[in-house]
Amino acid sequence: xxxxxxLKSGNAALLRGSxxxxxxxxxxxxxxxxxxxxxxLPEDGVILVEDVAHETAVEVMQLTExxxxxxxxxxxxxxxxxxxxxxxxxxxxxxxxxxxxVDAHADLDQALEIVLNAKTQRTSxxxxxxxxxxxxxxxxxxxxxxxxxxxxxxxxxxxxxGARRRWPAxxxxxxxxxxxxxxxxxxxxxxxxxxxxxxxxxxxFGTGHTEAILTRDLEASERFTREVDAAVVIVNASTRFxxxxxxxxxxxxxxxxxxxxxRGPMGLRELTTYKYVVHGDGQTxx
Length: 286
Known about the structure:
By secondary structure, the protein is an alpha/beta fold. The chain has 2 domains: 2-93 and 248-271, Aldehyde Dehydrogenase, Chain A, domain 1; 98-241, Aldehyde Dehydrogenase, Chain A, domain 2 (3-Layer(aba) Sandwich), CATH 3.40.309. The protein is 36% helix and 16% strand. It has 10 helices and 11 strands. Helix 5 crosses helix 6. The chain is globular, with a radius of gyration of 22 Å.
């Protein structure tokens, strides 16, 4: 996807991967360069930095004369290093600590299917649900149902006191658990007294990626979409829909969690800049 997007948008790609993927990266870059040459395009449209030293990575981050945009794909340590060292403009493809909030007015049968899909359909992706937030008004009915289904699918459950009271078999969740992108069969669960508390919980632990509310209350859904700070806010559907192809954008190079310039799934449009062209016929400014 990344190679196709760079080609279509007219960008050369300077690639620098980790040491653990070096041999794969070399093989892929060689194939891409050969393909460019076969169709008469410059092979240097794809350049792989094979030196995996940290100092080399920092040097790449500061090549303002040659690099227009840096898109890091990796964990928190990489993002921290980028923010500490980069001089090149950066678009952050951030962590996906995605929440699903089950409101007091949710359709619980529908909510059950959505939570199972959001958590278990594919666990190792950034748009998988990592935390479930449940209104206390439906917790007694909903949590035993959803926890049984999740446990039957080998999901490890970690909850606050309210959640553990409804499903004693789950472990105790810490703040680190609530703030984690697990990318695994693992889910944190919190019970909240109202929508205010749900929004506050997401504000505290969310990463600005994707947040979902399940409710039949129009006012609650409109307030949630208005006040929750995330690139994508979903009403009555799975967090797994945050994806360039599912949004109709085509291939994506990542999902931006920052405000500017790109936000959400980044496709061809986000990799293409623009210019203003002015045609005149002798006009001057007075």
